[in-house]
Amino acid sequence: MADQPGTGQRTRRWRWGWGGWRAEAGRLLEVAALLGLVITQPLLDVLGRSPDFFLFHRADRREILLLVALVAVLPTVAVGLLGLAGGLLGPTVRAGTHTLLVGLLVAALAVQVGRQLTPLRGVPLLLLAGVAGAVGAYAHRRWRAAGRVLRVAGVGPLIFVGLFLFASPTAPVVLPRGDGGAAGTATGNRHPPVVLLVLDELPLVSLLGPDGGIDAQRFPHFAELAAASTWYRNATGVSGWTPYALPAMLTGRYPAQPYAPHYSHYPDNLFTAFGGLYDIRAEESITRLCPPSRCEQPVMPEQGLGVLVRETGQLLRQVTSPQDSRIDPENSYRERTAEEAGIDAAEPVPDDPKFRWDSLNVNQPARFTSFLNGLTPAPRPTLHFLHLLMPHSPWAYLPSGARYEAPEEFPNEGDGWVDLARARHLAQLGYTDRLIGETLRTLRETGLWDQALVVVTADHGVSFTKGAQGRGMDAIRAAADEVAWVPTFVKTPGQRTGRVDDRNWEHVDLLPTIADEAAISLPWRVDGRSARQAPRTEPGKVFYDRPAEPTPISGAVPDPLPPPAPHPLVGTAVADAAPGGTVRIGGQDGFRAVDPDSGQLPALIWGTLPEQVPDGTLLAVAVNGTVASVVPVVAPDPAGRRFAALLADDRFFRAGANRLDLYLVEPAGGLRQLTIS
């Protein structure tokens, strides 16, 4: 029987269509392989090594899995749809579109590889990547072997996802194992309320005055706390990195493994030990040591998939940029304000006319506000815990409580920039002192102060020593007194007067001390010892930059650092001066309409001057005719800036338009006014 007319043509068209779909699937595999190397692998690698990213944003399993799916699948789907759209215009256009995509993705991959293997940055690196992309596109078009290799590599994204879910430090956050360890047992009938406030990145030396005590003039509330508690003045943290330092504090054990700070890795901790006898109200930041069976932490309005996607997009820009990123991810955690979180704060009693209490209500971090709201007496013993990222960078607060904006990529190293970093740190520490005052006031008003065991400390410090800034091994070797020694205050129930204890305290001693005071026996062995026991006889201490690798450190209570002396010009009125050239300024827009009641001030300015102005030249910054700061001109930073000034006293500002003037300070003390461009 003869074929019906047209049947063979339909069969040939069907076979051509099947072949076309096979070719399209091959192209999609090639694109998936390149996208996996350009996007999926670098993002999941960074996120896999940063479980604190998900813990800080309180992401649950579903949100993390959705983010992983978006990272691994969405780019391939989007590019695949683009290819299909090109295919509608014919095979020639489709092939050209695919070759162009291959070339662009090879160029993007070359940027990342070149940044790792060569000193090139910026335009030179982009030019090199462009050449690599063109060569890759030609090779793909010229030789079939290149396409075959890419198609085999198309399984790469699945491998990257598997490593993230099952082998990365973040894996326990996504797929927790276990739900906490054993509860402690009571050793007595008296279990006082426990209030534990852990600050972050606070060196003891930042609080010290010239006499070696707490500087009561600059930090009155820390001094008030010291006057009513036991100050363990020789206390040191265990690590300069919170994901290691805080678990050591709350387990009583030195860091042994590079684990995520998650209850599945640290089942035996403060919360599990106290959970059988105490109600727990915990406000954690970049840890999740309290298991859901012990405490349910409050949900914040801004957490969720949208926040994760936004932050991951910023990470992708850093990963694919031809420039090195100067942003330390750990320094990018910003505590949201109570206003941003929609939390109502109790109106505090104004006892300092210079402090904007209304701004404190607007600006104080949400976690702190929630912590304060929970400080109320309860029928059962209660553990109140707060880890507050203060005065940790990013620095954004003045001592008054007002906020200011600053570029994220300001350098913290080099002449001028280290001094600015310390000034911003001390300003935020002044604000932290206000929060300590709020805590003490709340405890006294609720009656918890006399009843409770109150502990205030910090997990680690930070170095502002030139050439060794930060918390890494260089900082430990050059400035251990700034990185390791931290303030530690313990007020026992009923304690009325303060005292100083200079025993060799290490932060693995924190949990055994709290457990002893709360009459709880810990069901596991600890490395620390309670302050109720005899002090250590050995003077040495250890510090962990990496788990299981203790670094011996020596020393005792650090000497106070010389207080930053203001320049004699600060606070003086300035009149007209002779012209001295031009200056370009960033951060000046806020001077046009200042509203102090908004809680925000233009307290940081930065800019550049002509090359003819020598490094080291002093620059006076005047607000409304009064010198507010004097800073040096320094060598340009990567963004070209040659100076930055923090205007830390908000009394220089007034509502409405404010005048900003800059002057070169001559060696003899005279001023030459700069024209702002």
Distance between the first and last residues' Cα: 91 Å
Describe the strand arrangement of the main beta sheet, using strand numbers: 5-6-2-7-8-3-9
Structural class assignment: alpha/beta
General form? globular
Q: Biggest sheet: strands, sense, closure? A: 7 strands, mixed
Count of helical regions: 19
* Gyration radius, rounded: 29 Å
Task: Tell me the β content.
Answer: 5-15%
Average of per-residue pLDDT values: 86
The parts where pLDDT drops under 50 for at least 5 residues are 1-16
Report the strand count.
20
Helix fraction bin: 25-40%
Task: Supply database-style keywords.
38% helix; 677 residues; globular; alpha/beta; 7-stranded mixed sheet; 20 strands; disordered N terminus
Structural summary, described in words:
This protein has helices at about 5-50, 50-55, 60-85, 90-115, 120-140, 145-150, 155-165, 170-175, 220-225, 240-250, 270-275, 305-320, 340, 355-365, 365-375, 415-445, 450, 475-485, 510-515; strands spanning about 185, 195-200, 230, 235, 280-285, 380-385, 455-460, 490, 500, 505, 520, 540-545, 550-555, 580-585, 605-610, 620-625, 625-630, 645, 660-665, 670-675. By secondary structure, it is of the alpha/beta class. The strands form five sheets. A seven-stranded mixed sheet has the order 5-6-2-7-8-3-9. Helix 3 packs across helix 4 (about 90-115) and helix 5 crosses helix 6. It is globular, with a radius of gyration of 29 Å. The protein starts with 6 loop residues before the first helix and ends with a strand. Mean pLDDT is about 85; it is low at about 1-15. Keywords: Membrane, Transmembrane, Transmembrane helix. This is Sulfatase. It comes from Micromonospora maris.
